[in-house]
Design brief:
2 domains; transferase; Phosphorylase Kinase, domain 1; Aminoglycoside_PTrfase; 5-stranded antiparallel sheet; Pseudomonas-type_ThrB; kinase; Aminoglycoside 3'-phosphotransferase, Chain: A, domain 2; 11 helices; 316 residues; kinase activity; binds adenosine-5'-diphosphate; alpha+beta; binds ligand LJ64HWYM
Length: 316
């Protein structure tokens, strides 16, 4: 968790002089980021967040930000870059692609409430509908093909029981492929964990970090949200928060009967995806002699996968 690129007041003042946003009053690094460097910037007019992309070329950033700009035109609260006085929104600082966005009020929710789950469900459905007229969603780089390829790479890190679980789940998901492909799909956020949303009490103020957004089944996106926002102490889902989430979502886009019949498969897929990505993150952290934070451990998602599998057996 860091800000990788340091900025001086003179560099920032120079950048801001190209925008019509007032004078620089203060700027503070935001330590919560993982991938990019973010600064909270206060000008004489309002609050902004400045993001320097640490690992991406300008064309990649243009592609990432396409969705946020589209949703911004539909008045959704997502970080859509502000244009400078000549209509340019992509700048460069220290040779890194840089954008300036409105800073949203609120903080990441901590103790998740049913009201917050209902609100995020509503917002996710709005996100799916509002993005449906934006063509060419990005390919999901952590989709089904990645599950298969990374699983064989990572299985050397696993004990026998986890290896068996992984093999069996991949076989199950492979068998479900044709069904999965029939689910309504389009742009998905693909990483709408509660640390990517801001709330003021129970009121949702913004959804952030659209940089994993890609093509996928809408139910899968909802399942990613459910696995995080409705997580219960027994590694499963809290029924009340889950019901609130689905009510919120369906108040905007009702699920079809076919989608409702696919819940268990898709919740399992969503748990598998983050089990795998956290296993990979663990391996990468180890290679730097680091550890993942306690709340980002792969076992959480392995255990949630087991819980969903047990549910499907008990129905069966
Ligand atoms: N537009 C914004 N308004 C308010 N806070 C923001 C905004 N953009 C980013 N942040 C804050 O910065 C943190 C890191 O942003 P994020 O896009 O998640 O970075 P990274 O991709 O580096 O993890 C967020 O968790 C949030 O606290
Ligand atoms: N929110 C995720 C991390 C983002 O996924 P990644 O595939 O980009 O690592 C988590 O909590 O694991």
């Amino acid at each position: 968790m860091a800000v990788y690129t340091s900025l001086t007041a003179a560099e920032l003042t120079d950048l801001l002089s190209q925008y019509d946003v007032g004078e620089l009053v203060a700027y503070t690094p935001i330590s919560a980021g993982i991938e990019n460097s973010n600064y909270a910037v206060t000008t004489s007019q309002r609050e902004y967040v400045l993001t320097l992309f640490e690992h991406h070329a300008p064309d990649e950033v243009r592609n990432f930000v396409r969705l946020a700009r589209h949703l911004g035109t539909k008045a959704m609260s997502v970080p859509s870059p502000v244009e400078d006085a000549s209509g340019v929104w992509l700048h460069s600082l220290k040779n890194k692609p840089t954008i300036l966005c409105q800073r949203f009020a609120g903080s990441h929710p901590d103790q998740l409430s049913e009201q917050q789950c209902e609100a995020i469900g509503r917002e996710l459905a709005e996100f799916h509908l509002a993005s449906s007229d934006l063509p060419d969603p990005r390919h999901d780089e952590r989709g089904y093909d990645w599950w298969q390829s990374i699983a064989s790479e990572l299985s050397t890190d696993l004990n026998a029981s986890d290896k068996a679980l992984l093999t069996d789940e991949l076989a199950f998901q492979q068998a479900q492929r044709a069904q999965w492909c029939q689910l309504p799909h389009g742009w998905i956020h693909a990483d709408l964990f509660h640390d990517n949303a801001l709330f003021d009490g129970d009121e949702l103020t913004a959804i952030l970090d659209l940089y994993n957004a890609c093509e996928g089944a809408w139910l899968y996106d909802l399942a990613i949200v459910a696995n995080d926002w409705c997580a219960s102490d027994d590694s499963g889902l809290d029924p009340k928060r889950f019901e609130a989430l689905v009510i919120g979502y369906q108040s905007v886009r009702p699920l079809s009967e076919f989608e409702s019949g696919m819940w268990n498969t898709v919740l399992r897929g969503a748990a598998l995806r983050f089990w795998l990505s956290r296993l990979l993150a663990t391996r990468m952290a180890k290679s730097r002699s680091e550890e993942l934070p306690a709340h980002k451990q792969p076992t959480e998602y392995r255990d949630r996968l087991r819980w969903h599998r047990a549910k499907s057996l008990s129905k069966g």
